[in-house]
Every structure is written in structure tokens, then in C-alpha cells.
Amino acid sequence: MNAIWIFEDVNLFNLLCPHKFKKYKDCHDFDAYKKSDYIYFEEDAANKVYLIEKGKVKIGYYNEDGTEVIKAILKRGELFGEKAILGEEKREEFAQSLDNNTSICPVGVNTMHELMRDNKTFSLRIYKFIGLKFKKLERRLQLLLFKDSKTRLMEFLDELCSEYGYDCNKTGDHIINHPYTQKDIACLIGISRPTLNVLMNELKEDKIIDFNRKQIRIFKTSA
Q1: End-to-end CA gap in the chain
Q2: DSSP H helical segments within the chain, as ranges?
């Protein structure tokens, strides 16, 4: 199965951040955020894209009734705000820090366009990223609309295994060391945290998985 929750095993920060390019290195700064700080709000001007140097960032929006909808939780090396590259003038979502020591590399749209013009590999990476991110969001919406909670959880665990696991293509137990809290996982698959706790404990009782805060083990009998 293709990864739909995480982009791919590429640290975009190492490839794209302007401080890697001599022309921009001296005048480039990083922005620091604490937990719950907003990087931008809905309706803000879309004049930058952002790369995560450290920490985690939540991307989402609010329904008409004020309910928060989480579109993605991003980690080190990932890009967000990329619609600005395609001509978006105002944000249609918010971006919020989830860690106390989040460090962000902001890149002006004009600078990004310059880098894309000057570096074909850079440009191809950006467009590939945007295309895969749209496909990922489409797949996630399909899961939320047409799959029950337990199926969404199992498919999410499968994706975690492909991104963070080892021995996931062998006959032994699948061990996943991941960066998400239970709240993160519940948000990403569209269920409440209590519901997630119930489902995870049911899977544990059925000897399908075992888990702690940072690791999930999928037993080989369930593969």
C-alpha cells in the first residue's frame, strides 16, 4: 500500500531550506514557536511556505459550528503552506505548533519561485510533494467517509508501519516507533480519544497489538 498519511522518506528541510543555498544563507532566519502558538490563521495572507526544522505542526480548519477539523500533523523535514506557491492569496486553514520547541524555516513565495527556477531537482521535488499531499488528503477523506472507526485505525497502523516500523515486511512482529500522541492519532483518523483508547485496548486484549506511548507492536499472528 502506498503511504497516504506521511509524504515519503525524504527530509525536505535538508533539501529545500534556503540556508543551504549560499545566496540566501546570510539573510535567512528561523522562527521559534511554543506549544499552541499559531504560525498562521485562516484568512491570513499566503505569502510564505514553511519547512519544519524541529517539532510538530498541526494543520486544520474550523467548521461553521466551530468544530476543529485536523487535516494533518507534520513533523521535522516536512513542508506546509505550499498552496501559496500555486497562487493562493489567503490561507484556507490554520497552522499551529504542537511542541514547546518548534523551529520553522519560513520561505517567501518569491524566494521559493527563484529556487525552483534555478534548480530543476528542487522544482520537481516541490511539485511531487504537492501532488502526493493532495492524493493523501483525498485518500484520508475517503477513509473518514466510508470506513468504520476500527478499520480506519487498522489502516492507519499499517501506514505507521510503512513509515516508522521495522521488520514490517518480514514474518516477525511489526514494531513501530512513532512520534504521535494518542490525541494526534485520534485527530488524524477522526475519532475521539476515549474511542481510540477503547479500540486500542480491544486490539491489545485480542493479542493483535501491544503498545506504549511511543511504540506499537503488531504481532505476527495478525499479519
Answers
A1: 14
A2: 12-16, 22-25, 109-118, 120-146, 149-164, 182-189, 193-205
Q: Specify the amino acid at residue 172.
A: G
68 secondary structure, DSSP code: E
Cell of 60: 486544520
Quote the CA–CA distance of 81 and 62 in Å, as a whole number: 17
6 CB neighbour count, 10 Å cutoff: 19
Is 145 in contact with 201 (CB distance < 8 Å)?
A: no
Q: Above 90 in pLDDT, residue 95?
A: yes
Q: How far apart are CA 93 and CA 68, in angstroms?
A: 11
Spatial separation of the C-alpha atoms in residues 144 and 91, rounded to whole Å: 23
Residue with cell 514553511: 50
Q: What is the tens place of the pLDDT at every residue in 137-176?
A: 777 777 777 788 999 899 888 888 877 776 665 667 888 8
pLDDT band for position 2 (cuts 50, 70, 90): very low
What's this model's pTM, rounded to 2 decimal places? Answer: 0.71
